[in-house]
Structures are given as C-alpha cells and as structure tokens.
Specification:
This is beta-galactosidase. By secondary structure, this protein is mainly beta. The chain contains eleven helices and 58 strands. The strands form 13 sheets. It has an eight-stranded parallel beta barrel. It has an eight-stranded antiparallel sheet with strand order 12-14-15-18-19-22-25-24. The longest helix has 20 residues, at 150-169. Bound molecules: beta-D-galactopyranose.
Length: 935
C-alpha cells in the first residue's frame, strides 16, 4: 500500500483567514492522505459522500446556509463546489469577491457546518453556464482557451492567483473544510499537458496541500501518474458519469450499464465517482419533474449502491444536490433555461423530494458504517434464484461484509425472491430475501453496531447512535417485504417488542428477529452481555422520517438543522404542519427553534412533544402596474452622442464578420444581455431591404427599426452556425431580410437604422476548440443597399457593484436604473395588457409581511398570454431570469434575501414582443410554508 503524504505548510495557520475562520486554528492541522481504499484525515479513513452545489446559482448568503444545512441533513458529509471565473470578473484584471460572490464566507459556512469541500476552480467548469465559466472578456484575448497559449495563460493565472489563496486558507490541513482540489474539468479532448501541469503547479505553489483530483470524462485523456506518462497528472483521478443521459421525456428508460458504474482510474488512489448523475438538464423541455423521475430513487438505489460494491468507490460527488437558478445572464444558451432545478434531490425552491429521502437513507448509512471505507472484493452469499444477483466486499481488518442484492436484470420491474446461503464472519446463515421492483439493497454482516454485534440482516441499516449508555439503531426495508436480523449475544437477552409484530428466537448466541417491514416496529433488547439496544425496524418511508444530528435521532419534523445540548436538547428544525416530534436522546427537556416545548418520555426512552405548524400566509395580488416605452433608441432624434463608436476593422474572434466594421458586442466590451446599434447613412433612394446577420445564441432574437418604423424581428444565429472542428463556420448566421416600406427613405436624406440584439449567453468550450467559446454575439453583417453606414453601439452601462457583471444588459431601463427600487415611475402611465412589437417596461411594487419564524419560498408565475414575447424580470434590481412565451418555464424563483420577506419589493419587467401580444398578470405563488428556516 502506498500512502501519499503532502507537506503541511509552515506558515502560521489562519494567518490570512477571515475573523471567524481563524477561531480554532490552534489545533494541530491534520494531513490529508489517501491510498487505494480511501481518503484519510490524519490517518483516519473517510468515505466522502458529497453533493454538488453552485453558490452562483443562489444569490443569497442566508440561503447558502439554508441549503448547506439541508445538504448536510441528507447525510452528506461534503459538498463539491465549482468556482465560476466569469462570475467574479467583469473585465481583465478586475475581480470581485464581495456579497453574493463572497466565497470566503461560503467556505467558512462549510467549516461551521462540518462539511468537507472538493474545491473546483476550473479555470474551465462547463456547468451549463455562460462561457462554461470563462469570462466573456476572454473572447478578446488572443490564443486558444484551455491551452498553454500565452494569452490564455496570462488570463487564467490571473484567476487562479486570486481564487487559490482563498481556497488555500480553507483547507482541512489548516483547520478548514477543503479536502481536495480539482484541476480543470473533463479535460478530455484537444488537451495540452503543459496547461494541465501548470494548474497543479500553481495550486501547489499557492499552498494547496490536499490531494489534487480531476473529473475525467469519456475515456479520452488520462491524468494520473501511475497510468499515464506524467505531465499534467493529478493524484486522484475521478470519473464523471451520467448513465441516464438527459432523456427526461422518457423517464422510465434506463441508461447503459457497465460504463454506468464508476471505474477505477488510478491504481493507488480511491475509486472516485467525481460527478455522478443525480439529476439532468432538461434538454427537451420536458420539465424538471420528469428529470427528477429519470434519476429517481429506484435509479439511485441500483446505480449508487453498485458504485459502492461493484466499483468499491469511497469518494462520491453527486451532480447536483441542489441545482438553483441561472439568474441574470448565467445560462449557457444551448442546453438550459433560467431554472437549473436539475431534477435534483433539493428543488430550486429548496424543497425536499423523494430523491432527498433516498440520499438520506444511503448517506446516513455510508457515513455511519466505518468499515465501508476499506473494502476488497469478497465472496458473496449464494443466491438460490439466478434472477437475484449478489455481490460482496469485505473489510480486510474487521471482516465486515457489505452485500449488494439486486435483480440480475437490473432494468426489470419483477418481484423475485431467493434464499441466501451466507458465510458471514459470525457463522453461516440462511436467510430469505426479496427484490421487489427496481431495487437494490446493501446488507451488512459481521458489523460492530455500536455496542452490538450485527451478525447478518436482510434489512438495510439507516444509522445507529449511542447515547445515555444505550444504542439506538434503525433498520429498514421495502414495505411488505420480510426482514431477518441476527444479533449476537453471550447469553440470552431480554427482548421486549414495544410496537409492531416481531418474532424472536435465540439459539447459539444468535438472537434472530423476523418481521415484515410494515410501519415502524420498536424492540428493546437488554442484558445478554451488552448495553441496551432500541431497535427500530421500518419501511423505506419510515426510515426517511428520521433525522440525525450528531448523536441525536429525531422524527416527525420536515427537516432537522441541528440538535445540541445534553439535559435539554435544543432543536433547530422545520415543520410543514403541526404534529408530534420525537427525539431519541437521554435529555429531560426540549426546545424547538429557541422556544421550550413540553415533552414527555415514551416507553422507547425518547422524548415526545407536540409542535405547532406554520401559520397560513396571504400574499398580495400584483396590481397597479405602470408602463413605459422601451425603445426610444429607435427614434431618429435619439441622442446617442455618448454611445461607443463601432469602427473596428479587426477582431481576435476566429469567426470573421460578413461586413465591416466589426460589430461584435464583446469587441466593444458589452458582454451580457442586449445591445443596441444605431447606424446612420444617407439614402440613395434605391434601397429595398435591410439585410442583417446576428448571432444571439439559441432562442435569441433581434429587432429592427428604420427611421423609427418597426420593420420586424429575426431569430439570431446559434452555436451550430458557427461551426466546430468538423463543420466549417456558417457563412450566413442568423440572417434577417427586412423590406423597406416605400417612402420611408428619401434620396439624399439621412436615415437611421436601429437594431436591438439579444444575447442569450456565451457558448461553452467543452471540446476546448476555442471557436465555440469565441463565437461572437451581436451583428456580424449589416447592409442596406449600397449605403455606407456609420455605427454606434450601446450595451450595459457599468457593472452593478452589488449584483455583478451578469445582471444587466443594455436595455434602456437597465441603463437608466428603471429596474432599481429607488427609481420613481410616477410619470409612467397605467399599464395595458396588450403589447405592440418592440420593447416596453412594466413596474409595480408589493409589500410582504411573512412571519419571521417561517420559510415561505415564493415564485413569480407567468400566465400563458398570446403572441410571441419574452420578459426579463427584475426583483429589486436583480435579474431573476427570462420568461419566454414559447416556454417551457413559467415559474421563476424569488429567493429570500433578494426578496424582502418583510417590506416593500419592486418588480420591473422588460417585455420584448416580436408581434402584437397580450401578457397576462403574473402572480406570486407560495411554493411551501414551513415553521422554522435557517435563522
Ligand atoms: C459534465 C460537466 C458539468 C455539467 C454536466 C452536465 O460533463 O462536468 O459541468 O456540465 O456535465 O450537467
């Protein structure tokens, strides 16, 4: 066994840390090492069970904590975090880590919650975000991105030199949370070893002393020292796998197997399922509920449990635990819309799903049963039925076995039974098992369960705790199936069945319990030479009702955030409704969210209390809308004297313009949202059409006015038009030909052409080709007969220092602050529901007074109107996404923090209509109502 050891830095621990982060840095810093079995923190093995979280998709620090608490309560002991270069950098040399970009604060939260972090700063991250995380200004930097080209090298080093010091001071080796550092992202084709090597070298030079990982994709490149020739190698090579693909419209199909289970990629490092599918992008507009079904509990049981036993993985990153919102101009235009719910276990509005329940069942188990951190393949119990497949691993030191039981045909819905002949560490056992529907179980044998000895069980272990001198253990199985659990005792123990129907027998040191998984049975076992055990035997659903916070088990609440204290347990928990709360701890008293509640002791030795539910809430209707015209720029007399002259004749973009000057928005520093163009020419009276080309990204449009007259709109070019390695660039992207009405132009007279071009976000660079990522946005060609046109361009005015570079584009309301709460719309007229083609603005305000101790996530729902239009919605100045009348998204998350839950809110809508349209009134919709919340 080779154990890699990393040097621990000699600098004073916490020297650069923020005020809270430095608190307990005096404690000796642990070393993070690994071998082929697992990661180790100061020699102690850790099974890393982490879920992916994108802070940039949740612009509210309070909700970061809320969501991290939810992730932790699901049994995760870690999070995987991308850091998004473009989110922090509006232009070269400028970086911002404040407010919703304060990742130092984020990392402190993970520390406070005791979650490990796999830090993934890219520089490239993909993630269905604009530019795949590359800043848009990089489009103006010569040289291929994701290579060792000098231009790109200077750029990405700028980013790493800022983000690395933040990550460094939060490493587990310095008392922080970061346990691994991931270099690049699925860097698989068009690779450049010198670039990959430089990322690791810079990380090490900055003080990264935790293992460096890479999430490999597609069998393409190999980045480990033991299997590859070296340059660019990382310590632990992980595998990304999305076995269900993204076929959300057909959620009952099952993906490929074999490649669908994580492979070992480094001989001397743990098997790492770096990004394992835990949701899907909604490529076909099926809706995220379908994506959630595609990657639902049955898939999770079969695939995730196989990763543990078939592959022996001990490092997991589930993509995504919580997806969030691609607010502002965060979405990459080709694959996603505003919502990045992802069909994840935690919904975009932070609600917990049946997938969350399954994560909890698996996560609590895997982070409880320590022998799972070190296992080798072992012989499995013989199955009497070929349709029931068994497979096992065992811990070489303790002998503990973990057995995977599933259908041999993993896609079948059949109900199969078998008898297992099981040679376990404590003896041979013959036990019945049943696999009902798509299912897989992880069964234990020879396991020291606290002070107990579990010989074998056909129920799965949820978790066990030790408190007040006794063990409490929860075992579960599918409703209606039989369970057998055998516990070892020196002498016959005293068994008391408190509830449910459980048969027991004792012979040769084996206490055998037989039962059907039905509701929740309770058995109290004492004597027999061991400390007492409260055994709770339940169904899958009953198991999911349990929460574990440290050594306290709780049931009855919708969430448990923490449980602290000895004689009084202080519970921070959420409740969807009034009901009983049961706490398994030897305490005498109970407080719930800071208030004492009366609790009585039950025969199970737990505390039982009745807790009140949330009060009903009433939401205001959105009325008193006012409106303003949104395209004064189209008028010939509009003052554009302060606009940027667009007269460039060259560009670093690999895609060349059809006409000159270069009109690419990025070349003039306008990277996000809409841009306006105004072209002036003198008519010769012969012009018949305005002929344009524009690239907007998928689903983008542009609109054209001549001498103030609206001529129409056209669809902008998309990624495919720009070509990739196999297809040459499209010579005619996003064409639009607009007939000039007769009489509109007069020979010898000046004319003004105004064009508003949308920008749906920047392409990613997944294949490291540069041509996709550098694809321009804005006009790529413009002609009106033979006229010589001079151009001006206007995009976003300046970066909003609070909301960041991706919040605003160049619409008039964005430039003049109509989106902001402070703006007075008193001169605006009362709004009509009918909209004429072009652009217009709507505003209203509403007051909320939501109860302080309740969590009521709200969404804004757009009713189906008529006509083709799109709406960019601003809540208190924050661009919370884009509604398209063509769908699919109608509900838009309004996250607390941006939403003032007690106070006045301002909604501003930029409406861009392609034709006459009627827009219905949007409404506020409560997604849930819980007493509690992360306070
Ligand atoms: C992976 C990538 C992630 C994300 C995911 C699909 O290939 O690493 O960033 O794009 O696919 O959602």
């Amino acid at each position: 066994m080779v154990a890699a050891t990393f040097w621990a830095p000699g600098s004073p621990a916490g020297a650069e840390a923020g005020p809270e982060a430095g608190a307990d840095r005096a404690v000796a810093a642990p070393k993070i090492t690994y071998d082929k079995y697992s990661l180790m923190v100061d020699g102690k093995r850790v099974l890393l069970w982490s879920g992916e979280f994108h802070y940039f998709r949740l612009p509210s620090q309070a909700l970061w904590r809320d969501t991290l608490e939810r992730i932790k309560a699901a049994g995760f002991n870690g999070v995987s975090l991308y850091f998004h270069w473009g989110y922090h950098s509006p232009k070269q040399g400028v970086y911002d880590f404040t407010g919703v970009r304060d990742v130092d604060r984020l990392l402190r939260m993970t520390e406070e919650l005791g979650l490990y972090v796999v830090a993934r700063p890219g520089p490239y991250i993909n993630a269905e975000t604009t530019g795949g995380g590359l800043p848009a200004w990089l489009k103006n930097v010569p040289g291929r991105a994701r290579s060792s080209d000098p231009g790109y090298t200077a750029a990405y080093r700028e980013w790493l030199d800022r983000i690395n010091p933040i990550i460094v001071r939060h490493q587990a080796t310095r008392g922080g949370s970061v346990i691994a550092y991931n270099a690049e992202n699925e860097y698989a084709v068009n690779t450049d070893r010198a670039y990959m090597a430089d990322i690791s070298a810079r990380a090490r030079a900055a003080g990264i002393d935790v293992p460096i990982t890479h999430n490999q994709c597609c069998d393409a490149a190999d980045w480990t020292t033991d299997w590859s020739t070296g340059q660019g190698a990382v310590d632990i090579l992980g595998v990304d796998d999305y076995p269900q693909a993204f076929n959300c419209p057909d959620p009952r199909t099952w993906g490929t197997w074999g490649t669908g289970v994580t492979e070992r990629r480094s001989r001397e490092a743990p098997v790492y399922a770096a990004e394992y599918q835990a949701g899907a992008i909604d490529l076909n507009d099926a809706g995220y509920e379908k994506c959630r079904e595609l990657t639902g509990p049955d898939y999770m049981k079969v695939y995730y449990k196989s990763n543990l036993v078939t592959s022996g993985a001990t490092m997991f990153g589930y993509y995504m635990a919580y997806g969030g919102t691609s607010w502002g101009w965060l979405p990459q235009p080709n694959d996603v819309y505003t919502s990045y719910d992802y069909g994840a276990a935690i919904t975009e509005n932070r609600q917990l799903t049946t997938k969350y329940d399954e994560f909890k069942r698996q996560g609590l188990f895997l982070t409880t049963a320590a022998p799972l951190t070190k296992t080798d393949p072992a012989s499995a119990p013989a199955s009497s039925n070929a349709a029931v497949h068994t497979e096992a691993r065992a811990n070489p030191d303790t002998g503990t076995q973990v057995v995977l039981v599933r259908h041999a045909d993993r896609t079948t819905d059949a109900d199969e039974s078998a008898t297992l002949t099981w040679t376990a560490p404590d003896g041979s056992y013959t036990v019945p098992v049943r696999v009902k529907g798509r299912d897989a179980k992880l069964l234990l044998a020879g396991y020291d369960m606290g002070g107990q000895r579990l010989a074998v069980s056909t129920s799965e272990l949820l978790t066990h705790t030790e408190s007040g001198g006794r063990d409490v253990a929860v075992l579960y199985g599918k409703e209606g199936t039989q369970g057998t659990t055998v516990l070892r005792y020196a002498t016959r123990p005293t068994v008391k069945v408190l509830s449910g129907s459980v048969q027991t027998s004792y012979a040769n040191g084996n206490l055998t319990l037989g039962y059907d998984h039905q509701g929740l049975a309770r058995v109290l076992i004492s004597d027999g030479g061991r400390r007492p055990l409260l055994l709770l035997l339940g169904t899958d659903a009953e198991a999911a009702k349990f929460w574990r916070a440290d050594d306290v088990l709780v049931r009855g609440t919708s969430l448990v955030r923490s449980a602290k204290g000895q004689s009084t347990i202080h519970l921070r928990a959420d409740l969807a409704k009034a009901g009983d709360v049961e706490v398994f701890a030897p305490a005498r008293g109970l407080t719930l969210n800071g208030k004492r509640i009366t609790a009585r002791r039950t025969p199970s030795g737990s505390l039982l209390a009745h807790a009140a539910g949330p009060k009903a809430v009433r939401l205001p209707e959105l009325t008193r809308w006012r409106s303003a015209e949104g395209a004064p720029e189209a008028k010939p007399g509009f003052d554009d004297s302060r606009w940027t002259v667009a007269d460039k004749t060259t560009t670093v973009s690999p895609i060349k313009p059809k006409t000159l000057p270069v009109l690419y928005a990025d070349d003039y520093g306008y990277h996000h949202g809409h841009v306006w163009y105004r072209g002036r020419f003198t008519s010769d009276g012969q012009e018949k059409t305005v002929d344009l080309n524009a690239i907007t990204g998928r689903k983008g449009i542009y609109q054209v006015w001549l001498n103030g007259r609206y001529l129409g709109s056209a669809a902008g070019g998309v990624q495919a038009d720009a070509g990739d390695a196999s297809t040459p660039p499209n010579p005619d992207p996003g064409p639009g030909h607009f007939t000039i009405p007769s009489g509109l132009l007069k020979a010898g007279q000046p004319a003004t052409l105004a064009v508003l071009v949308g920008n749906m976000g920047h392409n990613d660079d997944w294949t490291a080709e540069d041509v996709r990522q550098k694809q321009p946005r804005g006009l790529v060609g413009a002609s009106v007969g033979d006229a010589a046109i001079t151009w001006k361009i206007q995009g976003a005015r300046a970066t909003d220092p609070v909301r960041g570079p991706l919040n605003n584009g160049g619409l008039i309301g964005e430039r003049l602050g109509w989106t902001l709460p402070g703006y007075s719309d008193r001169t605006w007229r009362p709004a009509q529901s009918t909209i004429t083609p072009g652009s217009s603005w709507l505003r209203t305000t509403f007051n909320l007074d939501l109860p302080k101790d309740q969590d009521v996530p709200l969404t804004l729902r757009f009713p189906q109107g008529s006509g083709k239009y799109r709406v960019i919605l601003f809540l208190n100045g924050w661009n919370m996404g884009q509604y398209l009348s063509t769908g699919p998204q109608r509900d838009f998350a309004l996250p607390a923090g941006i939403l003032r839950e007690r106070g006045r809110n301002t909604l501003a809508l930029a409406v861009i209509a392609e034709e006459n349209a009627t827009i219905g009134k949007p409404t506020l919709v409560p997604v849930a109502n819980h007493r509690g919340g992360a306070r």
